[in-house]
Design goal:
Helix content: 40-55%
CATH superfamily of the largest domain: Butyryl-CoA Dehydrogenase, subunit A, domain 3
Largest sheet: 4 strands, mixed
Radius of gyration: 21 Å
Number of helices: 12
Structural class: alpha+beta
Number of domains: 3
Strand content: 5-15%
Strand order of the largest sheet: 1-4-5-8
Oligomer: single chain
CATH architecture of the largest domain: Up-down Bundle
Order of helices and strands: HHHHHHEEEEEEEEHHHHHH
CATH class of the largest domain: Mainly Alpha
Length: 388
């Protein structure tokens, strides 16, 4: 980054502090969980341990304001911290609460919601999943049909959500439900916070291509949700969900996740034959890191900004897929034999490499689908540029 002067000294001091913390708190088991990460998050038990250690240090939410329990770091500090975590194989957190819902509640939630939910998000006691997509409403969320009907001081939820990442692990969900008339499109949608242990909630697993269990289908059968769990006004959930998606797209495929993927492939692909491809990917990653810092100076996109989140989602997800494709190419025919679970750490046989490469390749297929496909991101980018 910088080479001399007070800023360089501050950077060096910050790096020394981070490295000392990682050396003390990243155990062998936590590092192993980080290395084995295939999809969006590491082993959940390891992630909870790591989340609590970060929270004890005040580093669980690097981009949150200090007033709400965050670290309040600069873009450079966030970049350095994320890079060091990846270089040291820290677990990837199941962090929809930290990355998306927490910032949304800071901006748009009630004071009671902030007091109730933010501390548990920071500690990792609450894990949040996202209930948006439905069988007939994936990329077109305006087609949502699952209903939330008022009954006294509560809503009653009926319907279902699909492709719900981590619903089998989460104890809470943020959901977009229809409270208005059928066929009203974006009008009449409401944003609700749902306890997953509420009556009438059931979760059905959807195994992934890699063999890993991340996705689920969730059903609601007259599930009660207090009116106090609504974020924003009834019928105005589209605007709340749009802001949530801006936050999610800006950080659900961050440069740190792409660096982790490249580091995983480099472990077995760093040979003269593949060196030029690795170098090209590393250059693209550096450009992506600079783009992320430039577009998110405050740690989150500005309200109403579709350009920055969609650019980051598009570039990050497609770059991560290119890295996974290289890994599968390195594995050759062994990548088609078996994929899950991995062999123990330290195995470097062709079969072990194929197992690892194919699992990560298959998991990466979802990267350009979740939070809106690449085609949707390109449309949003085009509209934002035309409007300027």
């Amino acid at each position: 980054m910088t080479s001399d002067g007070p800023q360089a000294m501050a950077e060096a001091a910050f790096l020394a502090e981070v490295r000392a913390f990682l050396a003390e708190n990243l155990t062998t088991d936590l590092r192993a969980a980080g290395r084995r990460t295939v999809g969006l998050f590491s082993d959940i038990a390891a992630g909870r341990i790591w989340q609590r250690r970060l929270q004890a240090r005040g580093w669980a939410a690097p981009s949150w304001p200090k007033a709400h329990g965050g670290a309040g770091w600069s873009p450079l500090q966030r970049f350095l911290f994320d890079r060091e975590c990846v270089l040291n194989d820290a677990p990837a957190l199941f962090a929809a609460g930290v990355r998306s819902l927490g910032p949304l509640l800071i901006e748009a939630g009630s004071e009671a919601q902030r007091q109730r939910y933010l501390p548990a998000i920071l500690s990792g006691d609450d894990l949040w999943c996202q209930g948006f997509s439905e069988p007939a409403a994936g990329s077109d969320l305006a087609a949502i049909r699952s209903r939330a009907d008022r009954a006294g001081t509560r809503y009653r939820l009926n319907g279902g959500k699909i492709w719900t990442t981590g619903a089998h692990l989460a104890n809470r969900m943020f959901a977009l439900m229809r409270t208005g008339a059928e066929g009203a499109g974006r009008d009449g949608l409401t944003f609700l916070l749902v306890d997953m242990d509420s009556p009438g909630v059931s979760v059905v697993p959807i195994p992934g291509l890699s063999g890993e269990h991340e996705f689920n289908q969730v059903f609601f059968d007259d599930t009660p949700v207090p009116l106090a769990n609504r974020v924003g006004a009834e019928g105005e959930g589209w605007a709340v969900a749009k802001r949530l998606m801006q936050l999610a797209r800006s950080n659900n495929t961050p440069a740190a996740a792409v660096r982790r993927a490249l580091q995983q492939v480099r472990a077995f692909a760093d040979t003269p034959e593949f060196a030029p491809r690795l170098a090209a990917l590393a250059i693209d990653l550096q450009a992506f890191e600079q783009l992320e810092m430039r577009l998110l100076p405050g740690g989150r996109p500005r309200p109403g900004d579709d350009l920055a989140p969609s650019l980051l989602k598009l570039v990050g997800s497609e770059l991560r897929q290119r890295i996974a494709e290289l890994g599968l190419e390195v594995a050759g025919p062994y990548g088609a034999i078996r994929h899950w679970p991995f062999e123990e750490d330290g195995q470097s046989s062709p079969a072990a490499i194929g197992c690892e490469a194919s699992a990560r390749y298959l998991a990466s297929r979802a990267n350009t689908i979740y939070s809106g496909t690449s085609e949707i991101q390109r449309n949003l980018i085009s509209r934002a540029l035309v409007a300027r």
